[in-house]
Design brief:
The complex is a heterodimer of chains A (about 600) and B (about 240). Chain A is of the alpha+beta class and about 600 residues long. Helix content of chain A is about 35%, strand content about 15%. In chain A, the strands form four sheets. In chain A, strands 1, 2, 6, 7, 8, 9 and 16 form a seven-stranded mixed β-sheet that branches. In chain A, strands 15-10-17-18 form a four-stranded antiparallel β-sheet, covered by helices on one side. In chain A, strands 11-14-13-12 form a four-stranded antiparallel β-sheet, with helices on one face. In chain A, helix 2 crosses helix 3 and helix 14 runs antiparallel to helix 15. In chain B, helix 3 runs antiparallel to helix 6. The chains are: A alpha+beta (about 600), B alpha+beta (about 240). Chain B: This is Succinate dehydrogenase/fumarate reductase iron-sulfur subunit.
C-alpha cells in the first residue's frame, strides 16, 4: 500500500489555496484577478464547506438599518468583544472594508433580506452596538458560499480539486514551495508546486465532543502551518457558543443561531427568570438594558432604550448558562430555555428563522413557535490560529499566507457573532491578492524527489500491517480529553493531566490503522486527520495552561480575573527542534486616538 | 434498541448488500447509525457527509427507497422490527458504497449564464420582489431532486436535460429583479425544459420544501412557450420586427 514516487501526479501553479470555504474561494478569486494561476483544493464537494452553516449574518457597518453606524463603532465593538487582545490593525481593516465586500457580493448575485426602501437589511446581534448584520433569514452562510462559488467557477485561471485533502506542506530553505495532497475518491496522490500558499482551512471543533462544527474541522491548516514552521497564536481562545441544542443526544451541540436572540428571543431558567440581567459586566453596563421593561422597549424600537442582556457577547452568555445549570436552575436536559414563541408571532418566526423552526421540528419534536427551546454551550469557533500580518495575511513562513478561521488576530479573546463571515471576505481578498503578488514576483523553487517520497510514505503509512489502533475510537478518546481538560472552564492541574493524556494518545495515533484500500476510505482519512487534531489540541492545552487569567473564551477557575500583564501579550506556539515551544509576544499597541474611542463609556 | 441495517456496498458496478446490527439511541438519525457501524464494524464504509445539520446537502442517499438526507431522517420514523435498507442515489454513478459521483451537476451549473449585474451604483430591490428568488436560493444542492427525477433517474438523459435543480437555478436568475441576462433559449434547448412532465417528484423530496415545479419550472415553461410558441406573438414579431 506504500506510494510509489513515480505514480505521483505533479501540477504547477502560482498560488495554491487550501480550503474552499468563503475565505479560500474569496482568496482564489482575488489571486486570479491579479493574474495568477490558482489551484483551489477543497476537502469536500464545492459549496459544502463550513461557511454553509453560518446562520445569523455578516457584520458590516453599512448604516442601512441605523445611520449612526460607521466603521469606527464596528471597530470599537470588535475590540471590546475581543477583550482588547485583538490585533488592532486587523480589526480596523476589517471594519473599514467589510461594507465594500458585502456590496460586492450583491454585485455577484447575492440576495440579502431588504429594508423597506430596498437596501440590504441589517439585524441586531450580540456585542454590536447597532443593527449591523446583513443576512438572509437564518441561512446567511449558504447565501455567501453559493455566491462566491458561482463567481469562482466562472473565473479564469482557477483549477478546482474537489474532495482532495492536503496532507503535507513542503518547504525548501524556510519557504513554502508546495504541498502533497490525496484525492479522496481514488486515493491517488498529487504534488502541487506553488510559489505561494494560502491556508484557509477553518477551525478545529472536531477535537471536541459537543460541537457545532462539521467533520472537516480537524485543524488541518493549523497543523500544516505549525509543522512547516509558521507561528500559531492565541490557541487558548476557543469560542463556546452559548446556544447549541442539548436534546436529543444525537444532535447535542448543533447550533441554534444567535439570530433567535437578535430577533427578540430571551433566556430563562427553570424558575422562569430572565437570568441574564444578573450577569451584565461593568464594561457593558452603559449599553445594556437595566430591567425587563427597558429590554422590551428596545424590542419595540423605543428611542433611548438599551439592548437586552441576552445580546451580551458570547463568552458572557455561555458562562451565565453554565452557572445557572451548575446552581440547579437549568432545564431538564442541562441547559437553559430560549423562548421566541412568546416574543414574536409564528409567521414572523418562520420567515426570519426558517431553519431553526425546521431543525427543532425534525430533530427535536419541538415547535419553536409554541414552546421554548432548550439550549447550552457548544464548541463553535477558534479565535486563535496562524499568526498573520494584518495588511497581507502573510504568516511567519515565507510564501505562506492564511485567512479566515485558520488565521488569528482579528477576534482577540472572543469573536462577535457576524464578524466571521465578514472576516472571510475581507481577509480572503487581502491574502489572495498578496499571495498572487508575491508569487508573480518570485522564481519557482522546485522540491526534491526525496522529500516527495518521504511525504508520500507518511500519508500511506497507516495501511501497514503492523498498525493496530481503531482511528474512530482514538477520535472519541481525544474528544473526551478535550471536553474534560480543555473545555469551557479550565484549571492548571486538569490541564497538566490533559496534556499528559494527549501526549500518550499522540503515540497511539502513530499506530492508527487504515482498513481496506485507498478508494474513498474514511478510516484512512481519519488516521490522517487525527494527526492534525492531536497537534492542534496540544497547542490549545499548552497555551491554555500558559495563560493564567480568565479572558473572553478562556476561563480559568484558578485564575478567575483579568491579568493586566497578560492582557498585553499573545501566546505564540512554535515548532522547535525538541517539539512545541511557547513564546510570549508583545501585543501591538493601538494609536491613542483609537484607544480613547474604544474606552469611551458609550457611543 | 438493536436495529438491523442493510447497506449497499462496493465500487462502481460491483456491489453487494451488507447487513449490520447496531444499537440505536434516543433521537438518532440514519447518519448516526452509519457512523456507529463505521466506528465498530466497517471502518472503510464510504459515506459523504459534512454538517450533520441539514444545511450542506452532502449525505444524500436512498433510505428504504426514498431519496433522503441521512442527517435529517430519524431512526424512530421506521418500524424497528424491519431492517432499514440504505442505498446510494440511483441517478449517479457509484464511487464506493453510499458515495456517488455527482460531478455532472457541477458541469451543468458551469454552463449556466451567471448573474448579470446592471450598471448602477445604488441597486435597490424590494423584499416582496425577492421573496421568490430567495426561496430558490435556499437550495442546499443535495441533488435529491435530480436523483428522483424520471428523466435523469430512469432515462438517464443527462446530455439533454439539466434537471430540476438547474432549471430552478435558471428560474432564480430569470426572476432576479436586477439581472440583465437572458437565458430562455438555453433553458429551452441546452437545458431541455420541455422534458419535464410535471410529476412533481422533485418537490416531494426537497428537504428545503422548495416548490420547485410550481414556482420555478412551470413559470419557466410558460415563459418559454410565450417566447417561442405563441402564434400571436410570432405574427407580432414578424410584423414589427420586435423580439417581444
Amino acid at each position: 500500500m506504500g506510494a510509489i514516487v513515480e505514480d505521483i501526479q505533479e501540477k504547477k501553479y502560482d498560488v495554491l489555496v487550501i480550503g474552499a470555504g468563503a475565505a479560500g474561494m474569496r482568496a482564489a478569486i482575488a489571486a486570479s484577478d491579479e493574474g495568477a494561476s490558482v489551484c483551489l483544493v477543497s476537502k469536500s464537494l464545492l459549496g459544502k464547506a463550513h461557511t454553509v452553516m453560518a446562520e445569523g449574518g455578516a457584520a458590516a457597518a453599512l448604516g442601512n438599518a441605523d445611520e449612526r453606524d460607521n466603521w469606527k463603532v464596528h471597530f470599537r465593538d470588535t475590540i471590546k468583544g475581543g477583550k482588547h487582545l485583538n490585533n488592532w490593525k486587523m480589526a480596523k481593516i476589517h471594519a473599514e472594508q467589510a461594507p465594500e465586500r458585502i456590496l460586492e457580493l450583491e454585485r455577484w448575485g447575492a440576495v440579502f433580506d431588504r429594508t423597506k426602501d430596498g437596501k440590504i437589511n441589517q439585524r441586531n446581534f450580540g456585542g454590536h452596538r447597532y443593527p449591523r448584520l446583513a443576512h438572509v433569514g437564518d441561512r446567511t452562510g449558504l447565501e455567501i458560499i453559493r455566491t462566491v462559488q458561482d463567481k469562482v467557477i466562472h473565473q479564469d485561471n482557477i483549477d478546482i480539486f474537489m474532495e482532495c485533502t492536503v496532507a503535507t506542506i513542503i518547504t525548501e530553505d524556510n519557504q513554502a514551495v508546495g504541498a502533497l495532497a490525496y484525492y479522496r475518491n481514488n486515493g491517488e496522490i498529487v504534488a502541487i508546486h506553488a510559489k505561494a500558499i494560502v491556508v484557509a482551512t477553518g477551525g478545529i471543533g472536531k477535537a471536541y465532543r459537543v460541537t457545532s462544527n462539521s467533520w472537516e474541522y480537524t485543524g488541518d491548516g493549523h497543523s500544516l502551518a505549525y509543522l512547516a514552521g509558521a507561528d500559531l497564536q492565541d490557541m487558548e481562545f476557543i469560542q463556546f457558543h452559548p446556544t447549541g441544542m442539548v436534546w436529543p443526544p444525537s444532535v447535542k451541540g448543533t447550533l441554534v443561531t444567535e439570530g433567535v436572540r437578535g430577533e427578540g428571543g430571551v433566556l430563562l431558567n427553570n424558575k422562569g427568570e430572565r437570568f441574564m440581567f444578573n450577569y451584565i459586566p461593568e464594561a457593558f453596563a452603559a449599553e445594556t438594558a437595566k430591567d425587563e421593561k427597558e429590554a422590551n422597549d428596545w424590542l419595540k424600537g423605543v428611542e433611548g432604550a438599551m439592548r437586552p442582556p441576552e445580546l451580551l457577547t458570547r463568552d458572557v452568555v455561555a458562562k451565565a448558562i453554565m452557572k445557572e445549570v451548575k446552581e440547579g436552575r437549568g432545564s431538564p436536559h442541562g441547559g437553559a430555555f430560549l423562548d421566541i414563541a412568546n416574543r414574536q408571532d409564528a409567521d414572523y418566526i418562520k420567515k426570519k428563522l426558517p431553519s431553526m423552526y425546521h431543525q427543532f421540528k425534525e430533530l427535536g419534536d419541538l415547535d419553536i413557535t409554541e414552546e421554548p427551546m432548550e439550549v447550552g454551550p457548544t464548541t463553535h469557533y477558534m479565535m486563535g490560529g496562524i499568526t498573520v500580518d494584518a495588511e497581507t495575511g502573510a504568516t511567519s513562513l515565507k510564501g505562506m499566507y492564511a485567512a479566515g478561521e485558520a488565521a488569528a488576530g482579528l477576534h482577540g479573546a472572543n469573536r462577535l457573532g457576524g464578524n466571521s463571515l465578514s472576516d472571510l471576505l475581507v481577509f480572503g481578498n487581502i491574502s489572495g491578492r498578496a499571495a498572487a503578488n508575491f508569487a508573480l514576483n518570485t522564481d519557482e523553487i522546485s522540491f526534491s524527489k526525496s522529500k516527495l517520497k518521504k511525504a508520500a510514505n507518511e500519508i500511506t503509512d497507516c495501511f501497514s500491517d503492523t498498525k493496530t489502533e481503531n482511528p474512530y475510537h482514538l477520535h472519541r478518546e481525544l474528544q473526551d480529553i478535550m471536553e474534560m481538560h480543555a473545555g469551557i472552564v479550565r484549571e492548571e492541574e486538569s490541564l497538566n493531566e490533559g496534556i499528559k493524556k494527549l501526549k500518550d494518545l499522540s503515540k497511539r495515533v502513530e499506530n492508527a490503522k487504515a482498513t481496506g484500500d485507498r478508494s474513498y476510505n474514511p478510516s484512512w482519512h481519519l488516521c490522517l486527520d487525527m494527526k492534525n487534531m492531536i497537534i492542534t489540541s496540544l497547542a490549545v492545552a499548552e497555551a491554555a495552561k500558559e495563560r493564567r487569567e480568565s479572558r473572553g473564551g478562556h476561563t480559568r477557575l484558578d485564575y478567575p480575573e483579568y491579568d493586566k500583564e497578560l492582557g498585553t501579550l499573545n501566546i505564540i506556539i512554535r515548532k522547535g527542534p525538541d517539539g512545541l515551544n511557547i513564546v510570549k509576544s508583545d501585543k501591538k499597541i493601538m494609536p491613542d486616538e483609537l484607544q480613547d474611542f474604544v474606552m469611551k463609556e458609550a457611543v | 434498541m438493536k436495529r438491523k441495517i442493510i447497506i449497499q456496498r462496493g465500487e462502481k458496478e460491483d456491489y453487494f448488500m451488507h447487513e449490520f446490527e447496531m444499537e440505536s439511541g434516543p433521537g438518532m438519525v440514519v447518519l448516526d447509525a452509519i457512523h456507529e457501524i463505521q466506528a465498530n464494524d466497517a471502518p472503510d464504509l464510504a459515506v459523504r457527509w459534512n454538517c450533520k445539520a441539514g444545511k450542506c446537502g452532502s449525505c444524500s442517499a436512498e433510505v428504504n427507497g426514498v431519496p433522503s438526507l441521512m442527517c435529517m431522517t430519524r431512526m424512530s420514523d421506521y418500524d424497528p422490527s424491519e431492517p432499514l435498507v440504505i442505498k446510494p442515489m440511483k441517478a449517479f454513478p457509484v464511487v464506493k458504497d453510499l458515495v456517488t459521483d455527482v460531478s455532472w451537476n457541477y458541469e451543468v451549473n458551469k454552463k449556466i449564464l451567471p448573474y448579470q449585474h446592471p450598471d448602477t451604483d445604488d441597486p435597490r430591490m424590494l423584499q416582496e420582489d425577492v421573496d421568490r428568488v430567495q426561496e430558490f436560493r435556499k437550495c442546499i444542492e443535495c441533488f435529491l431532486c435530480q436523483d428522483v427525477c424520471h428523466v435523469l433517474r430512469d432515462s438517464d438523459m443527462k446530455s439533454e436535460y439539466a434537471g430540476p435543480r438547474f432549471l430552478m437555478r435558471n428560474a432564480m436568475l430569470e426572476m432576479h429583479p436586477l439581472d440583465q441576462g437572458d437565458r430562455l433559449e438555453t433553458i429551452k434547448n441546452d437545458n431541455g425544459i420541455g422534458l419535464c412532465n410535471i410529476t412533481k417528484c422533485c418537490t416531494e423530496v426537497c428537504p428545503e420544501n422548495i416548490a420547485i415545479t410550481d414556482n420555478a419550472i412551470i413559470p419557466m415553461k410558460e415563459r418559454v412557450a410565450d417566447e417561442y410558441y405563441d402564434p400571436l406573438k410570432w405574427i407580432w414579431r414578424k410584423l414589427t420586427g420586435k423580439t417581444n
